[in-house]
Design brief:
7-stranded mixed sheet, alpha+beta
């Protein structure tokens, strides 16, 4: 039962969640110089595994003992989760010595966070601690003596996020208090939406210069991914590229934005020559994914710079060329989009709901004429995924699917809008009785 934080009048504690899936907890406390009968109940219906007790006073500096247990355990003999040593308040003097909480932001790379803190006087090093934002997880020192005021921490895989705190390493050896803990922050990996969008990459990697970079390392941790359709033979493209390069380089090494070049050049040699002027990623010229992504963007003219939400793969802006590259505006667009219905992404999707099925319809390019419906394992409700095939279309038994042309596909759309059952709608579309 670890101490998460203490001020001069409050204590924040955490405890492990019971294995039986209980969602409510009883929390009690007492002064350390009192016996068991002095425990007072702070709450008998907590729904989290962390709590803060405020307005504490400890004139004798004896500290406090806390304990917690499942609220469904009515037996007085049920085990309590408790700590062995008292938790103490900070003195008023130590409270004044504390650094502000560290600032934690996305690290710009796969499953990484950037941690920054204010400099302190009379010190040359800092101790940095981290904890996973899970009930009962203690603080762990990840750097006992780090110079500078900034660290990037990698391989942060928890979906619950992480907290950080820091303190100066005093030159005289006196132990100083830790800063306030940061709010929990979740490091970004490679989102499922981006995985789906790039799932046809032949080598599972993108180019950075002459080097192949895995998709996770290339786009994992990015807040926004910009798909840039451009060609060297296009004068406006060269002008746009020059401006985009200047802006991209101004973002610094820890940028949370990445650009992926989709060449519209006529041959690989032209692609190579043009790409030499770019500091970002590219899809190989001979990789079919390049044309598929241009189909997804529905490119009708170049240059085109589409802005995608790195967390979901959702397209936020079809073309940012000619507009200010305003990250805050993109964040606002992402926040508004994420308040809408869940986004199912396989290139371009539309979601249909009926009484028996959720259907994901994928349309990669508007000129496509054949699709295959492939049943997937059901979890709660059936799920079907539309996949594009080049002509000639596969047979009805290919991969367990069946074929729909564009007219039939949109008839299925209409049926779903009317909440018809999938099986009944399919019979009508195919003319089966």
């Amino acid at each position: 039962m670890p101490l998460i934080d203490a001020t001069n009048d409050s204590i924040t504690i955490s405890w492990p969640g019971p294995l039986d899936g209980t969602t409510k907890y009883v929390l009690q406390y007492r002064r350390a110089d009192q016996d068991e009968s002095a425990f007072q109940t702070l709450s008998d219906g907590l729904t989290t595994t962390q709590a803060r007790k405020k307005h504490l006073k400890d004139a004798n500096k004896v500290g406090f003992i806390f304990r917690a247990k499942s609220a469904s355990s009515n037996d007085d003999d049920a085990p309590w989760m408790i700590h062995s040593e008292p938790f103490h308040l900070l003195s008023d003097d130590d409270e004044l010595k504390r650094l502000p909480c560290p600032v934690v932001t996305l690290g710009g790379s796969n499953q990484a966070l950037q941690v920054q803190w204010s400099a302190a006087d009379n010190t040359t090093a800092y101790e940095l601690q981290m904890r996973e934002n899970v009930g009962g997880e203690p603080w762990k020192t990840i750097a006992a003596s780090v110079s500078g005021t900034e660290v990037r921490k990698k391989n942060l895989t928890s979906t619950q996020g992480y907290q950080f705190r820091v303190r100066p390493v005093a030159l005289d050896g006196v132990e100083l208090p830790f800063s306030l803990p940061s709010e929990p922050v979740v490091a970004l990996g490679l989102s499922q939406g981006l995985k789906n969008l790039f799932n046809s990459l032949e080598k599972g990697s993108l180019l950075r210069g002459e080097t192949h970079v895995s998709l996770a390392d290339a786009l994992g941790g990015k807040e926004f991914v910009l798909l840039y359709a451009s060609a060297h033979w296009c004068g406006p493209c060269r002008q746009a590229t020059s401006m985009l390069v200047n802006w991209y380089n101004s973002l610094g090494a820890s940028k949370t934005i990445e650009v992926v070049f989709l060449s519209a050049d006529h041959d690989e040699s032209s692609f190579r020559d043009y790409y030499k002027s770019m500091p970002w990623l590219a899809v190989e010229f001979d990789d079919d994914t390049r044309e598929q992504l241009m189909g997804f963007l529905q490119v009708k003219g170049i240059p085109q710079l589409a802005v995608l939400d790195g967390r979901t793969g959702r397209m936020l802006e079809t073309n940012a060329i000619g507009k200010p590259f305003n990250v805050n505006r993109w964040r606002s667009l992402a926040a508004n989009a994420n308040q809408q219905e869940p986004y199912h992404h396989y290139h371009k999707t539309r979601t249909m709901k009926s009484t028996s099925v959720v259907v994901l319809l994928t349309m990669l390019v508007s000129s496509a004429s054949a699709f295959t419906v492939v049943p997937l394992p059901a979890t709660g409700s059936a799920r079907l995924s539309m996949r594009l095939f080049s002509e000639p279309a596969p047979s009805d038994d290919d991969e367990g699917g069946l074929d729909l042309d564009l007219g039939e596909m949109f008839s299925m759309f209409d049926a779903a809008e009317k909440d018809e059952k999938f099986e009944d709608a399919l019979k009508k579309v195919k003319g089966d009785n």
